[in-house]
Structure prediction request, 143 residues.
Amino acid sequence: MITVRRATVGDAAVIYDLQYRLWPDDISDEAGVAALLARDDFGAFLAERDGVALGLAEATLQHYVDGAPDGLSGFLQGIFVTGYDRRAGIGKLLLAAVEDWLRARGVGYLGSDSDLENSPGAAWHEATGFIEVGRTINYAKRL
Prediction:
């Protein structure tokens, strides 16, 4: 049976491993993950079977999210399901946990994003009720 629960600081090593698999080029360290997990405006959720992590969803509370009305909104920072467990509804279970966490905080809107080239990500978002509200190209400049 698959269960989903909110991660705690004690899960930092597991979260770090799953984050690395999702974002191999953009990762902090276990201490940074533990600091995130301790924040009230950050929610990480683990999908597990028999104590083994199968997936991760991370969300934050934000004051601005594209397409959202004014006020506090949620933002799905990332969602990941291990390769062997994909297409089994685990992503939807993780998303439901994020949505419940946000609703419990009085939040009525959830934003997300996906790379323009990530057509599977776009398809998942659309299949789970997200609507596209815009496309952007991000820029950076070293000062």
Observations:
- The CA atoms of residues 16 and 28 lie 8 Å apart.
- Strands lie at 2-6, 42-49, 52-62, 73-81, 110-112.
- The longest helix spans residues 90-104.
- Helices lie at 12-22, 30-37, 90-104, 119-127.
